[in-house]
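Annual report, structural modelling task.

Input specification for the FE2/S2 (inorganic) cluster complex:
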Amino acid sequence: MPTCFSPIRVMCTGRVDMSWILRALSAGTDGILICGCHPGDCHYVDGNAKALGRVELLRRLLDQWRIERDRVRIEWVSSSESARFAQVVNEFVNQIRLLGPVRVTDASTPAALLASNDGGLP
Ligand code: FES
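The model returned the following structure:
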């Protein structure tokens, strides 16, 4: 696993709050990869489907804020697919390296507004 990659484990992709992603981007995290169970395999029934919808919406908002949408990606990788997980992580890290550092330049974006709060990452 690339040293620049920091995994954060949650119980289900449905638990990933999109405000966490905005805060991470605002704090200088260059990319966020969400990996979850394949469709139909979520232990919480539809957490992965909900996460997919939220990520698609967030990526559209990133377009509006002129932040590259490819900085946020969701992939289906089961716990038994270690080789696929490594491949997905390496591909994502390489893609983010090509994009370079994230810049949240528009002060009116929620990402910038969240960065100005004292709350920090959860
Ligand atoms: S338990 Fe919901 S995505 Fe894995």
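The chain has one domain: 13-108.
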